[in-house]
């Protein structure tokens, strides 16, 4: 049980990976009781779910609990803390969940309907800029009926609402520990997930131990997981090769991926490539005197060479992306390629001079130094090279560590900045809705009334998500025309692990979040 007086103050984020178990026999090695050692270059920005709309979710999935999750590899949400959830009316305006019996938090407090209502109400009340309140735009109010029944009353039909409930942002928290009107400030966590926190050293490691009071669908296959943080891919891969960690996820650099492709089997390692739905993109801030000009944004879009970035910087471990919705999801288009074609300085020059801009446009591009992997800095140097060599721009690069970076873009400090995106849930809605409207995940208001008031509400009335192709094609046409967001590439999923790790084929949910409880050590064939 979680003892708050013993534990240190911060938690680690688990980012998405998928593993495939090897099949070699092991003559000796660590016992099943030893923790699985997982390496990452990514850490959480917050410990409080009410503040998090980022990769902090990866840890939340494992230490907190949500009403719905993705049981046994399901493609759609199913019960976790809830025993059942369903829409109760023909208009899909009331969504009712009944909790499992005898749920408790790790400190022994009851997890009941009151705790669920408290968790949702505080997200909306605190309303952190760039936080998860933006996911609850369709929620009107939360009603409790007794100790186990909760009804979510919606302002409008929303077929994606069950997916929202399954996101770690909707983690259920203890009312006794998480204030109703402000974020928790003691740096500790009280959850009801499969794990509790044993210790944490910020920037170094987090130790998770099994939570024996957990009641939900997950069946934990290990007793403990230790997460170790690295500053770069090369040191993380070296730790894997030397046996200091068992698994790597998020942050593998392109050079290390290429090296592992050649040598993994000889070194007793696994390297697995899977299709990915991670995207990377640029955000233009309308408060900036240059970035606010549509013609400037379109000229940048006309010059940027995505293929060069994918090949030169990422060594073809990513692929060029020409829409905000990645390939493989309903609504994917190639709008930016259709409109701009191949990169052309001549066309960009004509755009700018046609608008009376005859001198190089000064732009400052910001990126984070420790969030999206070792290739982020080279990627932005390549962007600067492309734009500067066009003669049409004069680019300055600036960067910050993630925690400071988030605060900067939420305050509107950056003229142009880079972001990556892993989906909250596997639906095209989640590649459009988080980035538009006054309240969005970027902290940069983007008024797009046709998208927010017409296209998204219409699409959310369709329970069959295959029927929303036109709405998302229309939404992306608006994004291309305005060029406020510039997609760059779509990632693949690369995971490296030692041969004695199994269970990874079940360890990735449809939102590409890792389920640590599925991992175990092999002791035989």
From TrEMBL:
A Pfam family of this chain: SBP_bac_5
GO terms under biological process: peptide transport
Keyword set, alphabetical order: Signal, Transport
SUPFAM superfamilies tied to this protein: Periplasmic binding protein-like II
PROSITE patterns given in the database record: PROKAR_LIPOPROTEIN (PS51257)
InterPro entries the record matches: Peptide/Ni-bd (IPR030678), SBP_5 (IPR039424), SBP_5_dom (IPR000914)
GO CC annotations on file: ATP-binding cassette (ABC) transporter complex; cell envelope; periplasmic space
Cellular localization per UniProt: Cell envelope
Entry's Gene Ontology molecular function annotations: peptide transmembrane transporter activity
Keyword Membrane: no
Main location group: other
Family according to the record: Belongs to the bacterial solute-binding protein 5 family.
Name the UniProt record assigns to this protein: Peptide-binding protein
Annotated source species: Streptomyces nodosus
């Amino acid at each position: 049980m979680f003892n708050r007086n013993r534990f240190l103050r911060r938690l680690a984020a688990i980012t998405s990976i998928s593993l495939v178990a090897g099949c070699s026999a092991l003559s000796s090695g660590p016992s099943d009781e030893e923790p699985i050692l997982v390496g990452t270059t990514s850490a959480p920005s917050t410990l409080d779910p009410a503040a998090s709309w980022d990769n902090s979710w990866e840890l939340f999935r494992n230490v907190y609990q949500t009403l719905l999750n993705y049981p046994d590899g399901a493609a759609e949400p199913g019960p976790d803390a809830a025993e059942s959830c369903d829409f109760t009316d023909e208009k899909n305006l009331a969504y009712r969940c009944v909790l499992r019996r005898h749920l408790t938090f790790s400190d022994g407090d009851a997890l009941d309907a009151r705790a669920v209502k408290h968790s949702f109400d505080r997200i909306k009340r605190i309303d952190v800029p760039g936080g998860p309140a933006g996911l609850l735009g369709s929620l009107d109010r939360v009603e409790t009926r007794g100790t186990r029944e909760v009804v979510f009353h919606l302002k409008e039909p929303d077929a994606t609402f069950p997916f929202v409930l399954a996101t770690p942002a909707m983690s259920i928290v203890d009312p006794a520990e998480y204030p109703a009107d402000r974020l928790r400030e003691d740096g500790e966590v009280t959850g009801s997930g499969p794990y509790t926190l044993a210790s944490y050293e910020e920037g170094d490691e987090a130790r998770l131990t099994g939570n024996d009071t957990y009641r939900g669908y997950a069946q934990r296959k290990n007793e403990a997981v230790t997460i170790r943080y690295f500053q770069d891919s090369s040191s993380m891969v070296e730790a894997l090769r030397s046996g200091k960690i068992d698994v790597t996820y998020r942050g593998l650099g392109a050079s290390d991926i290429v090296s592992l492709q050649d040598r993994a089997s000889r070194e007793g390692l696994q390297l697995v490539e899977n299709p990915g739905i991670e995207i990377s993109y640029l955000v233009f801030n309308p408060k900036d005197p240059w970035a606010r000009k549509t013609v400037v944004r379109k000229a940048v879009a006309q010059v940027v060479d995505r293929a060069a970035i994918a090949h030169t910087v990422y060594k073809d471990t990513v692929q060029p992306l020409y829409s905000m919705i990645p390939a493989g999801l309903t609504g994917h288009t190639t709008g930016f390629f259709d409109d701009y074609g191949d990169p052309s300085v001549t066309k960009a020059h004509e755009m700018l001079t046609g608008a009376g801009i005859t001198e190089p446009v000064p732009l400052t591009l910001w990126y984070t130094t420790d969030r999206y992997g070792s290739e982020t800095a080279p990627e932005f140097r390549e962007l600067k090279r492309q734009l500067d060599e066009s003669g049409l721009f004069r680019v300055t690069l600036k960067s910050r560590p993630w925690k400071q970076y988030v605060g900067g873009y939420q305050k509107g400090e950056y003229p142009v900045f880079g972001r990556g995106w892993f989906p909250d849930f596997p639906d095209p809605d989640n590649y459009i809705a988080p980035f538009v409207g006054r309240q969005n995940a970027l902290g940069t208001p983007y008024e797009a009334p046709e998208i927010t008031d017409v296209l998204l509400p219409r699409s959310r009335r369709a329970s069959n998500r295959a029927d929303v192709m036109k709405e998302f094609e229309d939404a992306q046409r608006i994004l291309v025309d305005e060029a406020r967001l510039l997609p760059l590439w779509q990632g693949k999923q690369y995971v490296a692990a030692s041969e004695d790790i199994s269970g990874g084929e079940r360890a990735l949910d449809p939102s590409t979040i890792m389920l640590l409880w599925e991992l175990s050590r092999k002791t035989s064939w």
